[in-house]
Amino acid sequence: MGLDYYTILKVDKNATEDDLKKSYRKLAMKWHPDKNPTTKTEAEAKFKQISEAYEVLSDPQKRAVYDQYGEEGLSSMPPPGSTGNNGRGGGFNPRDAEDIFAEFFGSSPFGFGSAGCAPGRSTRFQSDGGGGMFGVNNGTENMFRTYSDGTVPKKPPPVESKLPCSLEELFTGSTRKMKISRTIVDANGRQAQETEVLTIVVKPGWKKGTKVKFPDKGNEQVNQLPADLVFVIDEKPHDLFKRDGNDLITSTKVTLAEAIGGTTVSINTLDGRNLPVGVTDIVSPGYELVVPGEGMPIAKEKGNRGDLKIKFDVQFPTRLTTDQKSALKRVLVG
After folding, report:
1. CB proximity list for 116: less than 8 A, separation 6 or greater
2. Most buried among 149, 176, 214, 278, by the most CB within 10 A?
3. Bridge partners, residue 81, by sequence
4. Nearest to 76 by CA among 85, 68, 67
5. E strands present in the chain
6. Is 283 exposed, middle or buried (0-12, 13-18, 19+ CB in 10 A)?
7. The whole model's pTM is what?
8. 328 strand-pairing partners
């Protein structure tokens, strides 16, 4: 089965010329091999497919043949300027992907080009003696060459924005919808405003300072790569709990009698439970009761949680009778 150019270019079959240009600009910039140094082989193949899809769909004659007969129909088209194949293999021969890219983004936008080549044209996808549509000759991949005679477009620093989250959201996780407005460069090379809703999935256990990056969703300038948009998790203050890494710290009041004789305190957890905690030790100054596994989820250790640390505020009586004082003294002094 042949290539689906509409799917490759992420447009529907009723796409206009402007739709094709807009989609090509976005996808070509995303998959340009120089922007994907760690996955260069995959990017080169994708980049060529995107260019080929744009070339076919933006040409009314090729598009009509493709819509009726598919990719196989293009292979039987005579070469430009001929009246037939004259017994020789002809058909559709895709243009150099870098030539199409240069028409959109200017001469050598990624620093390509070489002496003897047309301005803005790269030898990246030229083969050294025939080969298939991806520059493969006799099963061996063509060595891609790059030369630099221009300036590489710079990518602006990321645009960072705080994303305030409650402790409850960081405990259970949440999904946030963020509506953004940004400047883009349209299919005609003009700046325009675009509105988009981004979905941020906040994972249980995320901490303040965790970053969520949306590549190329920042503002875009002419002859520049679009900036990345980064949301930075910020933690809202909580009335009952303070976070310490993966642990939670809370404080509760007990009477002097409870501090000495033992008690059970109830803690309202971040996920809405009522957690009874027995206090059997004598609550001395600075005493802290640790409840294992009742702290924050640990983001990188699924199923594990930190601890809950309970501090105590001992309420001393404001008045005691003489008999009460004497009784306490006898008990405490022994």
Report:
1. none
2. 214
3. none
4. 85
5. 136-137, 140-141, 159-165, 174-185, 191-202, 211-214, 229-235, 242-244, 247-255, 263-268, 274-279, 288-291, 308-315
6. buried
7. 0.56
8. none
Query: How many Å apart are CA 22 and CA 186, to the nearest integer?
Result: 6
Count of residues making up the chain: 334
Partners of residue 110 on adjacent β-strands: none
pLDDT of residue 79: 53
The closest of 167, 148, 161, 272 to 217, measured between CA atoms, is 161
CB 20 within 8 A of CB 9: yes
Could you tell me the two tokens for 52?
Answer: 């080929």
Pairing verdict, β 159-165 and 242-244? unpaired
How far CA 312 is from CA of 264, 287, 321, in Å, comes to: 12, 7, 26
Strand partners, 265: 277
**Separation between Cα atoms, residue 91 and residue 88, nearest integer Å:** 10
- Which candidate, 147, 255, 164, places its Cα nearest to that of 209? 164
CB–CB of 307/294 below 8 Å? yes
Q: What is the mean pLDDT of each run of 10 residues along the chain (334 residues)?
A: 84 90 88 86 90 91 87 68 46 81 65 40 39 36 37 78 95 93 80 90 95 90 85 95 96 93 94 95 93 95 94 92 88 76
- Give first-to-last CA distance, the chain, whole Å: 94
Return the closest-CA partner of residue 313 out of 286, 282, 280, 294.
Answer: 286
Distance CA 112, CA 106 (A): 11
Cβ burial, residue 290 (10 Å; 0-12/13-18/19+): exposed
Edge-to-edge order in the sheet of strand 308-315: 242-244, 247-255, 308-315, 288-291
Other Cβ atoms within 10 Å of 178 Cβ, number: 15
